[in-house]
Each structure stands twice: as C-alpha cells, then as structure tokens.
Amino acid sequence: MESKDINGKKSHHDLTSQDIINLLELSPLDFEGGYYKRVWYSKIQGRSPQEGSALNYRQSSAIYYLMTSELEGYSRLHSLKQEESWHFYMGDPVEIYLFPNTDEAPKKIILGQDLQAHQRPFYMVEPGTVFGARLAPGGSWALLGNQVTPSFEIPDFKLIPKDKAINSWPEYQSWIDLFFDH
To answer: Which of 29, 87, 152, 172 could crosslink 36 through cysteines, CB 3.0-4.6 Å?
Structure first.
C-alpha cells in the first residue's frame, strides 16, 4: 500500500525511478550512465583546470543525478580534471569506488542516510581520481546531486578502459569488474 504525504501525494519511499525521471525531467546520461538534469551553471567566469584551454569555464555547475538498478544506472569508471562533490538526497545507498592518482590505496565510500552504518550524505572526489559509482547490492534507485568545480565540460570527462584500470590496480580487479562485466 502506498503511503501519502499531507497533500495526498506519494511518499518518497513509494516513488519509482520512473517517477523521479518524470518529476525532475531527467534525461539519460549516455556517456556515463544514469539520468541527469543540469540545474545550475554559474554565471561567474571560472578558471580552466588545464592551462591554455579554450573552453569557457564557469566557477561551478551542478546536476541532479539518478542511479537505477538498470544496466545504464551506474556511473562508469572515469576521471575528471575538476573536483566533484556528491550529495545524497534519497533512495538506496550508493557505493563510490575510488582509485587515487597518488600512493593512497583505492577505497570504497558509501553514500546514504544511515550514519550509524558509516554511510555519508556527502563526499568530495579529488581531481584526477579514477572512480565509479553504483547502487549498493539490492538497491533500486538513488537520487544524488553532483557539483563540479570549475564547471563540468564534456572534454574533461575521461572514460577509463578496463585493461588500463586492471594494469594500474591489479589487486582490485573484482572492484573494476563491477563497472564492465554486465
């Protein structure tokens, strides 16, 4: 049975991923996976994360980002030249797998609402870090916000091939396989 809020509308616990797509007017994010809508693009000019870039960067940009249990509902293994903050809004927990470009060991962060289970509502991914995100096992959807500083521009998005990831982090192949073997 659906639960209703005080206005007679579905509770967020009863929303489906399709409800979220429709309500927020999300579109498929083909090159990364999941669904998105750009909700903010700073009016203030920003600095390029790379010297000599001809792109017109803004200080920051933000999107709604929906992950679903469907095949295209995860964030493929990639890197950005910018900082990217992840904000958890609602739904099921999300696992972010991080492969730093430093001597630091790869790690997994879980975004979610259960603070006692060490889930966190926010995480900042450092520039150049290779990472991917997916719903925690058994999850059906999660609504997140992502902010990129300086602004996200498509040429800065770099997909990481499976062989390159395995060559860089062979002892983490089981994590890497999560983003390729479907």
So the answer is: 29
